[in-house]
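Open question from group meeting: does this chain pack into something compact, or does most of it stay loose? Before anyone orders reagents, we agreed to write out a predicted structure and look at it together. Recording both the input and the output here so the notebook holds the full record.
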Amino acid sequence: MIAGIDDLSSDKVVKGANGAPILITISGNEGGTWMHRWLAIDFAIWLDLDFKIWVILL
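Structure tokens returned:
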């Protein structure tokens, strides 16, 4: 799990149906975005048609 997740406000964390975080955004100099690996794969499929075809044929 991600360290300090309890410190994040609810508007920066998107939780799935089971309550587990699937998308976290942290602002500031050391900020960034973390997403669950399944969401990351779906996002990559949306971005790259070649990757989508590779996943379908896998």
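Observations to bring back to the group:
The first helix runs from residue 37 to 47.
Helices lie at 37-47, 49-57.
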